[in-house]
Amino acid sequence: EALHLCWMQVCRSDLQATMEIHNARLNAAARLGDSALVECCLEDMRSAGVAMTELSYNSLIGKAASVGDKSTATLWHVKMREARLRPSIITYNALIGCEAKSGDLSGAQRLHAQMLREAVQPDEITYTSLGDAAARAGDLGALQRLRSELAQANIRP
Q1: Using H for helix, E for strand and C for coil, what is the string for 32-71?
Q2: Per-residue pLDDT tens over the stretch 53-111
Q3: Based on the number of CB atoms within 10 Å of its own CB, is 84 exposed (0-12), middle (13-18) or buried (19 or more)?
Q4: Integer distance in angstroms from the first to the last C-alpha of the chain?
Q5: Alpha-carbon distance 35 to 126, whole Å?
Q6: CA distances from residue 13 to 7, 9, 68, 153 in whole angstroms, order as listed
Q7: Residues 118, 86: contact at Cβ < 8 Å?
Q8: pLDDT tens, 51-67?
Q9: 3-state class of 122 per DSSP?
Q10: Which among 37, 46, 126, 145 is most buried, taking Cβ atoms within 10 Å?
Q11: Using CA atoms, how far apart are residues 109 and 47, in angstroms rounded to an integer?
Q12: By three-state DSSP, how is residue 13 classified?
């Protein structure tokens, strides 16, 4: 409700709704989990001629991933690529975390390999999610390989 009222004030004012304002609204709608409001935000962006940015997509991917909605997270990832935007560590961490939550070690490893091919450097969150996926899958070998990779990357487990 507060988000809607705030947006109405922007619409009624002389303020131009900038890309940043649209992204903030989209992020808030995604965090609320309000799919109707997300759609409204996306329509407002399209109507205003505001293109989605990496931040826009990451908001939608992150929310879907946080609730374990792998198909929606993947859909937004595909759309992000179609828009010729490069996924960041934030994108990959959300997607790998989603794979881990669902216990899909191969999916997490596939995304990890993809990020490395694209020269996106993994961080502690990436490795934690990969470890979670391996543990959920009961794959001791994957955990041992991950430990070696952490040592090579100079990251402490």
Answers
A1: HCCHHHHHHHHHHHHHHCCCCCHHHHHHHHHHHHHCCCHH
A2: 898 899 889 989 988 999 999 999 999 999 999 999 999 999 999 999 999 999 999 99
A3: exposed
A4: 43
A5: 27
A6: 10, 6, 38, 51
A7: yes
A8: 888 988 998 899 899 88
A9: coil
A10: 126
A11: 39
A12: coil
Residues 6 or more apart whose Cβ sits within 8 Å of residue 54: 80, 85, 86, 87, 88, 91
- Residue 120 to residue 114: CA distance in whole angstroms: 9
Q: Rg for the chain (alpha carbons), in Å?
A: 18
Alpha helix positions (H), the chain: 2-12, 19-32, 35-48, 54-66, 70-82, 89-101, 105-117, 124-137, 140-152
Is residue 53 a contact partner of residue 20, using CB atoms and an 8 Å limit? no
**Residue 146 CA to its chain's centroid (Å):** 22
Cβ distance 69 to 62 under 8 Å?
no
- Categorise residue 87: left if φ over 0, alpha if ψ from -120 to 50, beta otherwise: beta
